[in-house]
Amino acid sequence: QPELVPGGNTSVFRANVPQVFLDVNRTALMLKGVKLQDVFQTLQVYLGSLYVNDFNLFGRTWQVIVQAQAKYRDQLEDIRRLRVRNSGGTMVPIGAVADVRMINGPLVLTRYNMYPAASINGNARPGVSSGRAIEVMQELARSELPKSMSFEWTELAYLELEAGDTAMIVFAFSIVMVFLVLAAQFESWSMPLAVILSVPLCILGALVGVNAAGMDINIFTQIGLVVLVGLASKNAILIVEFAKVIRRSGKPIREATLQACRLRLRPIIMTSIAFILGVLPLLFAHGAGAEMRRSLGMAVFSGMLGVTIFGILLTPVFFYLIDSVSESSLFASRGVRTTGRFILLGLISLVFPPMLLVYAIRSWRSSPTAGATGPAPALAPRRTSEADARQAPAAPRSESESESLELVEQE
Hints:
The chain is mostly helical.
């Protein structure tokens, strides 16, 4: 398989390892008066070893271990010539009470959930994700193993499968979290869309950078994607916030968008370049943990570079389109606003269940018919005093002063 390292799949299981099999004849043991325990102990002493005791000599402690010399235990006939004492004190050769022969069998027999099992370790090629490598191994196991055998994952692969798509769920909830916070800040459900639409730009840049560097999408890359959600939203907020303030001052949408771009271009460029240069050391990391730092650095570096280049160009377009559509007669209707309120309520219920009741109460109180038992009292017009009428009109302020005042009040 091209996704796996050639020769990278290893296993300690061997089914044809040469072994010496000793078949003890229990009937012959009883006839000759030999105990089975004595036979096993004789084999242990001569073929293996047996610790006896310690003794002190030359200021050191030495162990006494009994074992036959190598030339007396390297052939099958040597095993048959070993002798064991019976109950009558006579030495009986082991060949008279046991059959010694060569067989083939597994060297190590392990069990998994009480079933005989063989462990297999594999490695994926550079640039291939662990999820893809797991899928390839599963396809091989299903196609090659007989029906009487199955497979299970252990250790890191098992934990990865148990976690599943948790990282993607966290990423989706982080986007919803940013949307809800911005909806509360702007007091609108349409303006946060102009900010959230910049998130796919950073994800696209991060994926292109990781793919160009030949890296895989691991847990550190996914952490970088979550970080990029906040960084991408920060640049978009700088443009959308100022454009919204200028729009409230009474200027057209196009003029407000262009003026916000001119005002916030330099802060966006300066902060973005500072952050991009700050993560450069992660791209050239070396030593222990360098692979983790490179994965995180490449995702954040390429994603921030992409959102800086494309976000400056596309965020004003998003704001212009969404603000124009939100002020149209279609979205200004009561039915569309009610639908949007229910959608926002559903999002809040997914992320913050305790806030569901609070939001419902606030929405009910803000409704024009909530708690109304009679006609609403009419507001009397404010009377203009004679002194106010005689007051001379204030001197007109310049355009820049008016814009500065509006921005300060909003902040």
